[in-house]
Amino acid sequence: MGLIKRITRSRPVQETLGFLVASYLKFVQRTNRFVMEPADAYDRIGPQMPVIAAMWHGQHFMIHFAKRPQDRAASLVSRSGDGEFNAVALRHLGIRAIRGSGARGRDIRKKGGVQAMRAMLKALAGGEMVVMTADIPKISRVCGPGIVTLAQMSGRPIVPVAVVTSRRIDFNSWDKASIGLPFGRGAMVVGEPVHVPRDADAAALETVRQQVERELDAIHERAYALVGSKDPGAKAAPALAGGSRA
């Protein structure tokens, strides 16, 4: 590990970075005029708390804007070095971090996926909302099985959430991450709760997985439309057989 990386991953630097990120996000939240859709989202979702708030990767900077002050929440954060200052930032935003992440292949134990699942189940049982990305790393906007499994095991509904701002920086990253800028307009769009039966078989779970994916795509498209933008991470429409028509 190089000197610069060692310095940036030291505890004092991570604490400072996390505090600065949280402070900046609070400033963005205060200086944007947000609209909520549907307008009665909190009235509809409140009685179903605690829920599993689902987001796409790339939305992790601003998703906390949709949390009410009275809602206790925990968020899944990777065990990577970058995840450390994210965990610090979440702490300053009033959200507890659960360390771990989903994984493809044989490294799920190293990633802490099993321990994270247990911790999220415990959080939900204790009345905490759990916030997590629906897609797994490096496969943007394809819902993985983890969030569906969590809903099945916990009995709590999945609620898709999108938060965007009209003024923002869109990064050219695999997850098309965005971070809001001050003094603009914002939209928070909450999708329909998705329930997963405890006795769901593999086919039913796949149907639910696809439902969560479609709902997340739909609310992101709507959120960007509300602020007068196009979703930079939207999936390309499938080509028509035989080519396009004039």
From TrEMBL:
Domain DUF374: 68-138
Protein's recorded name: DUF374 domain-containing protein
InterPro entries: DUF374 (IPR007172)
One family name in Pfam for this protein: DUF374
Species whose genome carries this gene: Microvirga vignae
CDD domains linked to this entry: LPLAT_DUF374-like
